Amino acid sequence: MTEVDTVQGAEDALDTRLVVGGHTLASRLIVGTGKYATNEVMIDAIRASGADMVTVAVRRIDLDRTQEEGILHHLDPEEFFLLANTAGCYTAEDAVRYARLARAAGFNEFVKLEVIGDEQTLLPDVQATLEAAKTLTAEGFKVMAYTNDDLITALRLEDAGCVAVMPLASPIGSGLGVVNPYFIREIKRRLEVPVIVDAGVGTASDACVTMEQGVDGVLMNTALAAADDPVRMAHAMRHAIRAGRLAYLAGRMPSREIAVPSSPTRGMLD
Amino acid sequence: MTEVDTVQGAEDALDTRLVVGGHTLASRLIVGTGKYATNEVMIDAIRASGADMVTVAVRRIDLDRTQEEGILHHLDPEEFFLLANTAGCYTAEDAVRYARLARAAGFNEFVKLEVIGDEQTLLPDVQATLEAAKTLTAEGFKVMAYTNDDLITALRLEDAGCVAVMPLASPIGSGLGVVNPYFIREIKRRLEVPVIVDAGVGTASDACVTMEQGVDGVLMNTALAAADDPVRMAHAMRHAIRAGRLAYLAGRMPSREIAVPSSPTRGMLD
Amino acid sequence: MTEVDTVQGAEDALDTRLVVGGHTLASRLIVGTGKYATNEVMIDAIRASGADMVTVAVRRIDLDRTQEEGILHHLDPEEFFLLANTAGCYTAEDAVRYARLARAAGFNEFVKLEVIGDEQTLLPDVQATLEAAKTLTAEGFKVMAYTNDDLITALRLEDAGCVAVMPLASPIGSGLGVVNPYFIREIKRRLEVPVIVDAGVGTASDACVTMEQGVDGVLMNTALAAADDPVRMAHAMRHAIRAGRLAYLAGRMPSREIAVPSSPTRGMLD
Amino acid sequence: MTEVDTVQGAEDALDTRLVVGGHTLASRLIVGTGKYATNEVMIDAIRASGADMVTVAVRRIDLDRTQEEGILHHLDPEEFFLLANTAGCYTAEDAVRYARLARAAGFNEFVKLEVIGDEQTLLPDVQATLEAAKTLTAEGFKVMAYTNDDLITALRLEDAGCVAVMPLASPIGSGLGVVNPYFIREIKRRLEVPVIVDAGVGTASDACVTMEQGVDGVLMNTALAAADDPVRMAHAMRHAIRAGRLAYLAGRMPSREIAVPSSPTRGMLD
Amino acid sequence: MNTTKTTVGVQLNGKPAEVEDGASVSGLLESLDLHPGMVVVELNREILPRDRYEEFTIGEGDTIELVHFVGGG
Amino acid sequence: MNTTKTTVGVQLNGKPAEVEDGASVSGLLESLDLHPGMVVVELNREILPRDRYEEFTIGEGDTIELVHFVGGG
Amino acid sequence: MNTTKTTVGVQLNGKPAEVEDGASVSGLLESLDLHPGMVVVELNREILPRDRYEEFTIGEGDTIELVHFVGGG
Amino acid sequence: MNTTKTTVGVQLNGKPAEVEDGASVSGLLESLDLHPGMVVVELNREILPRDRYEEFTIGEGDTIELVHFVGGG
Predict the structure, then answer these.
(1) Is the dihedral of CA C208, C212, C213, C214 positive or negative?
(2) Longest dimension (CA), chain F
(3) I want to staple B169 with a disulfide (CB 3.0 to 4.6 A). Which of A256, B178, D106, F54 is the partner?
């Protein structure tokens, strides 16, 4: 699609870069690195997505298996900004422990804070998340907090010093898209720190709709890793994020139930 | 977004070109030329959209006004493929007359057939459309027929020799998006000629959702012309069409109401 | 629920009776008699639904089987108004033939006209339906015409003399509910004869939403016959039709994205 | 609609009564008493709704105005079960104070606990709500807790001893209906105490859809008080609650995109 | 279907059948144990008036359709 | 509000007011023409038992809240 | 519109007009300052081949439609 | 895991293990063929500074967690 190239220059002027905790991202799309069939597909998909910030999890080294499982054997920390998460933690204490271990790896002070409250739904424990966020920001972490779509909690996470608040679109891995655009829109309207929708995006239109709510970015993993063709879907998502962002900035036409002709009504022949 | 350029080569391999009536289009997005504030904005928006096929209407020359209104003073027929429409016609006879006048302009044998059945909704008169389609195909026209989302009518328009069938997403100028994806999907599933959704798209996600139904293309006008910033919206739409198309080809993840973790559940610390 | 009885008198004043082709119905719900597990369940369900007009199909007597299959062995024509349909007909000629056979049974001049255009979707052939409608109204039939949700076709069926126009909510037996409320609303807004939504209702809320569009009635079959408990669902549908009708007449509150307290804001303590 | 009476007996057997904190309700609909144009309309609407539990607010007596504003001058405590709310409270301490004042009025130990976290959205402060719930249950109150649609919070409110958990369908007074049916369904699936959806219902179909999620009841106020005709809407809501409840119990037909005929396909003529 | 020594071949509800020669439509219904009030009869594509079934006799090669109402939506 | 030669200043439902010195809560309600059964009284942040209103006398500087039920959702 | 001593009355784009007697279609376009390549001409409901405009002369009572492409959707 | 004549029992990544008595953390990593830059070490719940692994020696009953980054969302 050469027209893409030719308009690229013009297009870059149409949007600003997303800045989170002082770090400027090249893309408004952040992607996870889990659940890919192979590391090769993972890398190709991430490159196709255009994302430069990628999430990783902190886990024990499995001493009985090949060490190849370590993500750093496949992901160049020079090429990608590593955002460690606290996925799998069910208490504030655990989340803080994992965050400290992640920071000790020496890449950056950022952490994607996740404190899960229920194993079946993986919904966040907002009280424990708030508690952990306070502890971590006090320790100098730049906390990007995964939360539900509750405005009150989002406001408190901002007060707690989080550099980004990340409400869910729908449950992790569900692919249901933005179930409650009102709440997402309201959170964006009321917060000053970046709002990045995390979890629930299933396909390109979900990502597009999410960005059209005016949020600053989207974080996804399963939508890419579990697509029949992750690399092709990653291209789709790169476009979808751009599409939704630009449409939001462009200001959509009013929608109305009555029709309005797009061709002139005058000048008809007798 | 330099990543766009870098992946462009790889991306071109991910989709085929849309071919309608033997003509190959560079883009799956077709745009109208009506209702823009100025001709300059129109041209910039069309270029940003990446569309190479554009629709025009046939009207009397207004002998009392400057001739500048003629679209050919602004649109280079070398750069764009002109698709004349029969907008404003309420009978098969009128539509045939306008189609013949359009062909006499000497650009091509294509016509976007529109026979309106009601002034308030601009919904098509499917019987008259079918009748006009038969007449025009018999005269060698390559008919792209605007119709409603009725499968039976779509099948008959295909039988009548139309080179493309163009069901509406929602009424012209309404911006309501794809109200009935089931019908659109079924039409695509059952027809062999290209299915191009025409009318109703309001914003980027509408275009994305439409392409995710598997259709071959989208035609829009008001969504660009009536956006606060038509050029920016045109960029958005270019991306949205690509996003929806690639997501359709990539095969989305299954959506489920239960959650599924994207980080490993094993390897947690004690 | 004794409160139902106590308010019944008051409630009867809240709505008028539906009159179709000069015949006054006790209920705005019309039900089919097909696909029930047993005739006993069918009768109980129909009684629970409150419907007094029921549809029946015209078929050959199966001379090799017990005659019990004849619906009149189970349905008292004194208790229910029998509306014969032309289900299964794919041409105008066949539909006319079935309608004549139905009338010859001697119950009434009403016919639910159905001319199917496609076996997979059971969508109507609107051209053939229109043709059959003209023939039948000329022969004195009171035609209630099943059609799609196209306004133009609906207007022509009214012009053809149909005593009711019956657009689909979604395909027969699909249970998808009202997929396109805009079209249904517009049809109701523009026609003078009763608009009765036929086909597609899956559960109570679908029936309620349908009536809230302002239509005059709903015809359903599978939603009752294929429910786990048809009789209980029939009670649900009776209430749903009333609920939707009364809500339409009552005029709903405006919906808004901002919240508004329902308790006084003044009078709070210090 | 005499058919309602005739089937009433049969119908009563189709559902059980809702029991909250040991108190049996005659209706699954609970209504508020705020924002009515006149007290006469309020009473008529409440009677038409069939609700026997009604909410009231605790406020200072306005010593400068006629005392007629006291709701007890209009609402007979013998006829209705008074559920006092803590609407307007923004801290756990305030909510506890209002609850104690309400109990001192001597009607019952029930309280509808509301602790608001934000004036613009009236969304609940779930942490403060949880804190107040613990205090009040310790004091012997029967707490019915208004909350958002977060499962984790709902589970904790149950653990805190609340006799009912009342998640919102959408913001108070918004009339947007059930925006997130997944979350509501999940809360119902996981809790043992009654789940009563509170706030957001705008019209009859909203109430019907809500009950179809399987919840135990619905509480509404604005949908009745702000309807053009509150009494008629109250009748509609009584039916809608019944419809949704019975449809849930009946088990709806499966919905499918393909069509399935409701009349026999065999027995057609040659 | 009752068979007698002298019969004629007809097409009855889509199947070849033998009916008594010179039998009336009412006779046919009786022989099939069908109540006239429950049946509509089409003889050679023409609907017969119910009160005159006995006037119509069935001949060789006739096509007869006996229809009724069944459950339908 | 009734005023007598000897009164004390109190905060009544958020506003400064003068009430008869040594008046009981039941007296106050009476003077305000409020039926005790319709009111809940909070005196200096403490809720008073309805059956003992006459036992509580109002003094200088007291804060009194008289509340009741109003329409609410 | 230019007027000469001898003209004929025609219907031009829906309005009555006077055009020079015996004028050709190409002459008419020229007088209207319209580039032939930008116009499609319908004379008495018949579309004229663009390369033969000069062959067609306009007479009394002719109905002429001059159309072109404008912006449309 | 290498075993020598004199070892101590520790809890290593959740499992009982024997490590050389007096071994340093860097020695342990070496023996496990783990690149220090790829590992974060927690000794008895305390995270060790990566540049001082050799200063920490492992003793009987120590609890050691060796963690790294894996794919996650």
Answers:
(1) positive
(2) 44
(3) B178
* Per-residue confidence band for C4, with pLDDT thresholds at 50, 70 and 90: very low
Q: If you measure CA to CA, which chain H residue comes closest to B266?
A: H70
Q: Which of B175, B71, B44 is nearest to A13 (CA)?
A: B44
> Quick one: CA dihedral B40, B41, B42, B43, positive or negative?
positive
Judge contact between B237 and B49, C-beta under 8 A.
yes
**Is the minimum CB–CB distance between D88 and chain C shorter than 8 Å?**
yes
Determine whether the interchain pair G14/A269 forms a contact, defined as Cβ–Cβ distance below 8 Å.
Answer: yes
Q: How far apart are CA A125 and CA A148, in angstroms?
A: 9
Q: What is the pLDDT of residues B159-212, one digit of tens each?
A: 999 999 999 999 988 999 999 999 999 999 999 999 999 999 999 999 999 999
Which residue does chain D place closest to F49, by CA atoms? D104
Q: Is B112 a catalytic residue?
A: yes
Start-end of H helices in B72-225: 92-104, 126-138, 151-159, 181-190, 204-212, 222-225
Q: Which residue has the tokens 């109905």?
A: G63
| Phi, psi for residue F17 in degrees, rounded to 5 | -150, 160
| B158, B165 Cβ separation under 8 angstroms | yes
Q: What is the pLDDT of residues E21-59, one digit of tens each?
A: 889 999 999 999 898 988 999 999 999 999 999 999 999
Please indicate whether, in this complex, the C-beta atoms of E72 and D263 are within 8 angstroms of each other.
Answer: yes
Residue D189 at interface with chain B, using a CB cutoff of 8 Å = no
DSSP letters spanning chain A: -HHHHHHHHHHHTTSPPEEETTEEES-SEEE---S-S-HHHHHHHHHHHT--EEEEEEEE--TTS-GGG-GGGTS-TTTSEEEEE-TT--SHHHHHHHHHHHHHTSS-SEEEE--BS-TTT--B-HHHHHHHHHHHHHTT-EEEEEE-S-HHHHHHHHHTT-SEEEE-SSSTTT----S-HHHHHHHHHH-SS-BEEES---SHHHHHHHHHTT-SEEEESHHHHTSSSHHHHHHHHHHHHHHHHHHHHH-PPPP-SS---SS-SSS---
Tens digit of each residue's pLDDT (9 = 90 or more) over D209-225: 999 999 999 999 999 99
Q: How many CB atoms lie within 10 A of CB H56?
A: 21
| Segment C126-147 mean pLDDT | 98
Q: Is D259 on the interface with B (CB under 8 A)?
A: no
Distance in angstroms (rounded) separating the CA atoms of residues D218 and D211: 7
Nearest CB among C185, C186, C257 relative to A182 is that of: C257
Integer Cα distance of D37 and D35 in angstroms: 7
Q: Does C257 lie at the interface with A, CB-CB under 8 angstroms?
A: yes
Which chain E residue is nearest to residue D264, measuring alpha carbons?
E72
Residues of B in contact with D182 (CB under 8 A): 257
Q: What is the pTM of this model?
A: 0.92
Six-digit token string for C107: 């119950």
Provide long-range contacts, Cβ within 8 A and 24+ apart, for B103-106. Answer: B103/B141, B104/G40, B104/G47, B104/G49, B104/G50, B105/G40, B105/G68, B105/G69, B106/G50
Do B and H have ≥3 inter-chain CB pairs under 8 A?
Answer: yes
Which residue(s) pair with D29 in the sheet?
D218
Residue C24 structure tokens: 């006054």
Label residue B9 exposed, middle or buried (CB < 10 Å: 0-12, 13-18, 19+).
Answer: exposed
Touching chains E and C? (3+ Cβ pairs < 8 A): yes
Q: Yes or no: say if C241 and C218 are a contact pair by the CB < 8 Å rule.
A: yes
> Quick check: D71 contacting F, CB < 8 Å?
yes
Q: How close, in Å, is residue G3 to chain B by CA atoms?
A: 15
G39 touching B (Cβ < 8 Å): yes
**Residues of chain A where predicted confidence (pLDDT) is lower than 50:** 1-7
B267 pLDDT band, cuts 50/70/90, is confident
